[in-house]
Amino acid sequence: MFENLSDKLERAFKILKGEGRITEINVAETLKDIRRALLDADVSYKVAKTFTDDVKQKALGQNVLKAVRPGQMLTKIVHDELAALMGGQAADISLKGTPAVILIAGLQGSGKTTFSGKLALNLKSKKGRQPLLVACDVYRPAAIEQLKVLGAQIGVPVYTEENNQNPIQIAQNAIKHARQYNFNTVIVDTAGRLAIDEAMMKEIAAVKKAVEPSETLFVVDAMTGQDAVNTAKEFNDRLNFDGVVLTKLDGDTRGGAAISIRAVVDKPIKFIGSGEKPEALDVFHPERMADRILGMGDIVSLVEKAQEHLDEEEALRIQRKIAKNQLTFDDFYKQLQQIKKMGNLKDLVSMIPGVSKSLKDMDIDNDSFQSIEAIIQSMTPEERNNPAIFNGNRRKRVATGSGTTIVEVNRLMKQFDNMHKMMKNLSGGGKNIMGAVNAMRGIQG
Fold it and tell me: What is the CB neighbour count within 10 angstroms for residue 333?
């Protein structure tokens, strides 16, 4: 995400490279390029112009220290203004009430039902809540089935009324059900609707009035860009929602919706969806997002994901084996499974400061590990624990058993060595991060 914008902003800052100080003349061209980059990212003209005007005012009012180059100073100003534009601080959702009721609204195809499931899992696993999902999309039969499937995947019950076509009654009955069976959070998944559909807009407003939610979230597809911002404004005028959820942000290299939606509707982005898995939901942190837009990485989010998904005892055991040069294919396989739990690999590695540029042309994909896993699973226990015994006959047998070729098996042997180097570099601290990235290149073949 934000790949195109990040590249253009980096080029804009280079204009000030070598300049002794910031002046109205030398900053003008940089700001012009920044504004153009924002417009190309599908940020509205009004928001882009106000933003660059604010940056200019701050930049010309700054005394540039001798130890700081003008380009660095302007980068910091742009970073701080970007974070402020996107809301400044992360905004939590309200869980008041017994039960707390969260109403989910949005356009058709925006990802509301998927988000409802993700939110239920998030509240269950991270806040210890007992959520109940409520199927109030009575117009799309597949929506009810989709919610049931999601609920089964994450272990969250789904309340439905198959023969009831009144979403207001369904929502009210679900709240009574939640009180009776001690669910402390009710997530109401409503039908997708268009802002121009007056009857449907009246219906969602009536649902909100009837259930009095502690939180109303508007779900919008980030890939629709400026249209997402305009739609949010129309829905907010009718619903006065509490926050925005941006879905499919991983598919949008422009990122205009994330940057300008807060400025237009004056409501915070609370969550972002960046993948298909139920766990692929993140709280929106404006400062961290500004870091990523400017290619500074997001080490805090990376550490949080690691703490959430990785087994600390297993990591320490592996670290000890690496130190003794005893890493086996079994260890390699377990590490791959743990890393995959954290999310999209390219997205994860891009969180490491200074690495995003190195990844620009790299194809890092979770699916690329499937053949590796098949090869390891075709090895005998002895081969997995003692890679040194591999000879030509063993490699041929493993290739046949895994449905791969000897070339792929040979590549894995090299990749295993590169993985070993990568783990060793990562265990050595930040100074070895680039060594880890170079090893990652080897893993991808």
Answer: 18
With 0-12 / 13-18 / 19 or more C-beta atoms within 10 angstroms meaning exposed / middle / buried, residue 277 is middle
d(CA 174, CA 258): 33
Q: Is the CB of residue 195 less than 8 Å from the CB of residue 220?
A: no
Of 225, 260, 295, at which residue does a domain stop? Answer: 295
CB 260 within 8 A of CB 43: yes
My answer on whether 356 and 282 are in the same domain is no
Q: Smallest Cα–Cα separation from 304: which of 276, 324, 285, 325?
A: 285
Q: How many domains does the chain have?
A: 3
Mean pLDDT of the chain: 77
Longest Cα separation, the chain: 73
Strand partners, 281: 273
- Tokens 């550490």 belong to 303
Rg (CA), the chain: 25
Residue 241 is part of which domain span?
100-295
Which residues share a beta bridge with 105? 218
Spatial separation of the C-alpha atoms in residues 264 and 67, rounded to whole Å: 38
Question: CB count, 10 Å around CB of 222?
Answer: 29
Range with top average pLDDT, 35-39, 180-184, 319-323? 180-184
Tens digit of each residue's pLDDT (9 = 90 or more) over 238-283: 889 999 998 877 655 556 777 778 888 888 999 988 777 888 888 8
- Give a yes or no: residue 90 inside a domain: no
Say whether both 133 and 263 belong to one domain: yes
What gap in Å lies between CA 152 and CA 158, rounded to an integer? 9
Please give the distance of CA 102 from its chain centroid, rounded to a whole number.
21
Please name which of 243, 293, 287, 290 lies closest in space to residue 265, comparing C-alpha atoms. 243
- 168 closest CA partner among 222, 101, 114: 101
Each residue's pLDDT tens digit, 205-223:
999 999 999 999 999 887 7
Give the C-alpha separation, 36 to 146, whole Å.
Answer: 41
> Can you give the pTM of this predicted structure?
0.66
Closest to 148 (Cα-Cα) out of 163, 133, 162: 133
Token digits of residue 258: 């994330």
Which has the closest alpha carbon to 105: 5, 4, 240, 10? 240
User: Any idea which of 12-21, 187-196, 347-356, 429-438 has the lowest mean pLDDT?
Assistant: 429-438
222 & 104 share domain: yes
**pLDDT at residue number 437:** 43
Q: Which residues pair with 189 in a beta bridge?
A: 104, 135
* Residue 203 near residue 164 (C-beta atoms within 8 A): no
